[in-house]
Design a protein that fits this description.
3 domains, 13 helices, 23 strands, flat, alpha+beta, Glycosyltransferase, 7-stranded antiparallel beta sheet, 7-stranded mixed beta sheet
Length: 551
């Protein structure tokens, strides 16, 4: 992607959003636009309109850290803020771009002398996932393929097609996986950024302002089980154990640039800081090892090591590593299944969903949801971790629906059907690791179940119940064919990747044992043919059952 010249001038294309679609105010002479020419700092979050804030969950929150109460209050506050910005102030803030990012990206000494061409979106407003929009400026206005496009979110995409009076723009506003908020109070512009870094295994939050010493506040670290939080130096820590003996720990470290930091009464108070960065790490003593009763080392040492390593790096280094790592997954593929009619693109997403269900004809919505599914799988299913359960990692309750566990009757399978076709094969591996770690208790449970006994009195192999956890525990009724269904995922992974060593060591033993389970249940009919005894032609959640099998 490059900045193209129109005549001898380099041009930045700016998109401006309002309730109608875009602001029509003449911004020549606006101090924000003037500031743009000399390099600006940071931008507001993307908005769908001047009154609707788009909120995205933090990418790759490996521990699912989320304060829903605060998030709700924050969204209401942001809503009120944006409502007040309608008019000239909204026009000004909508034009703010990430000047430093543009300078670095294009190796520019400054942004002075770069003209700004303002265009309206005539299709629909930008949201947080990759989309294509149409604008009302084309080649007659000097627009060329490859021209960078900015809005109040900063650099959001590039021009991909141009006609005389219009152009199409590919937007990539969430390519970094960083949540940010910018607001003004008392004449000071404040900015917050947050991301969960997989390479550094910490959650990172930073608070900054455009006036030195303007950051003042209080930080608390609150657990979900009434833990006591200890404050010491620049850190907050709590530890605990669940009723099943699982030990856990979480620690927050605050790094202040300027100002003061004081610990006491289970909290940290920071005052007159130029910038404050928070690093959060958490862990448990869970281990995928039946022989050790699924328990390993206490997480304290690992947490301390991660925080020490992350704390030795600059914030910019942590962010750059996070972005590069996330993009190495998300940018592996694009999906183009066609173009949605322009009139459909003007509608809000909820209305488009209903119309597509009724009439079809919205292929760009299908592509959007496809990428959303990839985003979720990248965010909650990484090698070495646990697979995606019924809620991924985003659970805010100690008593969640269906225990937020694994349901083998279709839910787990639905999570992982896209893994291989969507070029996220590594995200599939946590499912295989979990299944292998549960085989021994599943074998024992299967052997103890009378209905699985064969003529020899032995059952052999393994079956799985409809719901199961990660500690060899299982829930309600047997889902007899689920073992074969799980094996399909092993085979799919091999079929896409062709790793024969993995097939030999991991997949084949599981598939072979499952086949033996079903082979042992074959019965010979009078005509000499064999049939399987007990493969239910039903869905385990709703279909008919043998009389002896309860719901």
């Amino acid at each position: 992607m490059a900045i193209y010249s129109v005549g001898r001038k380099r041009v930045i294309l700016a998109l401006l959003l309002t309730t109608a679609l875009l602001l029509t105010l003449d911004l020549r002479g606006n101090p924000v636009i003037d500031g743009l020419r000399n390099g600006f700092s940071y931008a507001m979050d993307p908005v769908e309109s001047a009154t609707d804030v788009v909120t995205v969950p933090i990418e790759r929150v490996w521990h699912g850290i989320m304060d829903y109460d605060n998030l709700e209050r924050e969204n209401l506050a942001l809503q009120e803020k944006i409502d007040r910005l309608i008019g000239t102030q909204a026009a000004a803030e909508a034009a703010v771009i990430e000047g430093k990012e543009l300078q670095a990206l294009y190796s520019l000494p400054s942004l002075s002398g770069i003209d700004t061409e303002v265009a309206r979106v005539v299709g629909y407003a930008a949201n947080n996932l990759d989309q294509v929009i149409e604008i009302d400026k084309g080649s007659l206005s000097g627009i060329e393929v490859g021209m960078p496009v900015v809005n109040q979110a900063g650099l959001v995409g590039k021009v991909t097609q141009v006609s005389a009076n219009s152009a199409r723009v590919m937007l990539v506003t969430d390519a970094e996986g960083v949540v940010s908020t910018t607001y003004q109070s008392g004449g000071v512009t404040f900015r917050r950024e947050a991301f969960a870094s997989h390479p550094d295994q910490v959650m990172v939050l930073t608070f900054s302002a455009d006036r030195p010493g303007a950051c003042t506040g209080t930080v608390r670290l609150k657990g979900a089980h009434k833990e006591a939080t200890a404050a010491a130096g620049n850190s907050l820590t709590f530890t605990g154990a669940l009723v099943n003996g699982l030990k856990y720990e979480a620690k927050l470290v605050a790094l202040n640039n300027g100002g003061t930091l004081q610990a006491g009464d289970g909290k940290l108070e920071f005052k007159s800081c130029h910038r404050l960065t928070l690093l959060v790490a958490a862990g448990t003593d869970y281990a995928r090892d039946y022989a050790r009763h699924y328990r390993g080392e206490h997480p304290h040492a690992a947490i301390e090591k991660r925080l020490a390593a992350a704390g030795a790096k600059k914030y910019e280094e942590l962010k750059a590593a996070h972005i590069a790592e996330y993009q190495s997954w998300f940018n592996r593929m694009v999906l183009d299944v066609g173009t949605t009619p322009a009139d459909r693109l003007t509608l809000p997403i909820d209305r488009r969903k209903v119309l597509h269900a009724e009439k079809g004809g919205d292929p760009e919505l299908e592509a959007l949801l496809f990428q959303y599914g990839r985003y979720l799988l990248i965010s909650c299913s990484r090698p070495g971790g646990l697979p995606a359960n019924l809620q991924g990692l985003w659970n805010d309750s100690n008593d969640p629906p269906w225990h937020s566990d694994y349901h083998a009757n279709i839910n787990v399978q639905m999570n992982y059907w896209p893994a291989e076709p969507a070029n996220l094969a590594e995200c599939h591996t946590p499912l295989f690791d979990l299944i292998v770690s549960q085989l021994e208790p599943w074998r024992k449970a299967t052997a103890a179940e009378q209905r699985f006994a064969t003529a020899s009195g032995r059952s052999g192999g393994w079956a799985v119940r409809t719901s199961h956890g990660i500690n060899g525990d299982e829930g309600w009724q047997w889902d007899v064919p689920a073992n074969a269904w799980y094996c399909q995922h092993f085979w799919m992974h091999y079929a896409f990747g062709g790793d024969k060593e993995w097939l030999r060591k991991v997949a084949y033993p599981v598939i072979k044992e499952t086949c033996e389970f079903w082979e042992a249940r074959l019965k010979t009919l009078p005509d000499g043919k064999s049939r399987n005894d007990g493969w239910p032609d039903r869905d385990s959640g709703s279909g008919p059952r043998p009389a002896e099998e309860p719901r």
